[in-house]
Specification:
Helix content is 29%, strand content 23%. The chain has 413 residues and is of the alpha/beta class. The chain folds into two domains: 36-264, Alanine racemase (TIM Barrel), CATH 3.20.20; 269-392, Beta Barrel (Lyase, Ornithine Decarboxylase, Chain A, domain 1), CATH 2.40.37.10. Strands 1, 11, 12, 13, 14, 15, 16, 17 and 18 form a nine-stranded mixed beta sheet that branches. It has an eight-stranded parallel barrel with strand order 2-3-4-5-6-8-9-10, surrounded by five helices. Helix 9 (232-250) links the parallel strand 9 and strand 10 (255-258).
């Protein structure tokens, strides 16, 4: 999308607003598919948590994607979007046995990441196919909050607990049809990923009836020009060959599965916000926008960097600005950032806003969540309405009958 397209969206739908480029999503999907074209059976399960709008899910389905879900609600969204249950994998963490049983009753692939639930589920439902999430004890990821494969992680069954795991499987006679890992997000070192994969291959040898091996995802995408990213093509060449060799050892072709989220939608997303105030202090020039961490929390939560472009004045002289929001506490998007000269009323564009932006948005300060727009074949299509005051109060119950106004105090004479 170019600047004029984005300005057109802001003019038509107002601001702030999220915009997603369908063509970019498709090109990322095709890039990952092509990188592993040498693997006979490849399955991409889109990670719904990254961006869960039902129209995005329908786009994924049209490309042949499956779904990776982490909640019962995401499972139901996938089914509503038209995905077959067998094309959805359910990989929760720390949920109740009842939630897993409810998902299983819907027919989706179950993925269990702890011994307690595995034993309980296997005892009650030994014939239901189950995937097991393994923790390989490999540290990967660009931030401690998104590194999930290390030894202190709450995710997965430790490789050191494999003997206990095998005893549960043997005693319950349960059906293990998949092995899974996820080391973390923003993976840069392919060799670390390949090392973790070897641990998964070794674990897979314990299970004779596997149908697939799921290697998770977490591929790093660029956040600015020249930024480092995961070399998907190199990974596809190296891991694809190793996977095929393992299948030869195993005795049949298995499905190689990934669960990309950010990789597919991050770069496709743009967040547009208007500048309300340009404020000069003794040392800083603030550009205050009509948004805050209620709409885009990643810079504050993860220290994430989002490139910010003044699409109203893209050729203007660059100056240093600290871009801040309207939330009544510190919510800084960028400190002393070089941006083309900003005037009040300009539209700023935050790039890489496709993943974990709307899905982590909130109504903090009783602010409305913005609309979502899909840019498809040169047209802007509204895929979520802007919230209204009625949306804020819809599920509230006013107990005004319980309280009486305080009587006015008598005036002193």
């Amino acid at each position: 999308m170019n600047h004029s397209d984005l300005l057109q969206v802001a003019k038509e739908f107002g601001d702030p607003v999220y915009v997603y480029d369908a063509n970019k999503i498709s090109s990322q999907f095709n890039r990952l598919t092509n990188a592993f074209s040498g693997v006979p059976k490849l399955r991409l399960n889109y990670a719904v948590k990254a961006l869960s709008n039902i129209s995005i899910l329908r786009l994924m389905q049209s490309m042949g994607s499956g779904l990776d879900t982490v909640s019962l609600q995401e499972v139901r969204l996938g089914l509503m979007a038209g995905f077959a249950p067998e094309d959805i994998i359910f990989t929760p963490n720390g949920v109740s046995l009842e939630e897993i049983e409810e998902a299983s009753a819907l027919g989706v692939q179950i993925n269990i990441d702890n011994l307690s639930i595995l034993e309980q589920f296997g005892s009650r439902h030994p014939k239901v196919p189950v995937c097991i999430r393994i923790n390989p004890h490999v540290m990967a990821g660009g931030n401690t909050k998104i590194s999930v494969g290390h030894i202190d992680s709450k995710f997965g069954i430790s490789i050191h607990q494999i003997p206990h795991l095998l005893r549960i499987v043997e005693l319950t006679k349960m059906n293990i049809n998949g092995i899974h890992m996820h080391t973390g997000s923003d993976i840069l070192d392919i060799e670390v990923f390949l090392y973790a994969s070897e641990i998964l291959f070794e674990t897979a040898k314990h299970f004779p009836d596997l149908e697939f091996i799921d290697f998770g995802s977490g591929f790093k995408v660029p956040y600015k020009a020249g930024d480092i990213q995961t070399n998907i093509e190199e990974l596809g060449e190296k891991l694809g060959k190793r996977f095929n060799d393992f299948c030869d050892e195993y005795g049949r072709d298995l499905t190689l599965a990934f669960e990309p989220g950010k990789f597919l939608v991050s770069e496709a997303g743009y967040f547009l916000a208007k500048v309300n105030v340009v404020k000069q202090t003794t040392s800083t020039v603030f550009a205050s926008v009509d948004s805050g961490f209620n709409h885009l929390i990643r810079p504050m939560l993860y220290g994430a960097t989002h490139e910010i472009i003044n699409i109203s004045n893209p050729e203007g002289k660059e100056r240093f600005y600290s871009v801040v929001g309207y939330i009544c506490e510190t919510d800084t998007f960028a400190n002393n950032k070089r941006i083309n000269e900003i005037s009040e009323g300009d539209i700023l564009c935050f790039r890489n806003a496709g993943a974990y932006c709307f899905t982590m948005a909130s109504n903090y300060n009783s602010r409305f969540r913005p609309p979502e727009v899909l840019w498809y074949n040169g047209k802007a299509i509204l895929i979520r309405e802007r919230e209204t005051f009625e949306d804020l109060t819809r599920n509230q119950r006013d107990v005004k009958d319980l309280f009486q106004p305080k009587k006015q105090k008598a005036e002193a004479k």
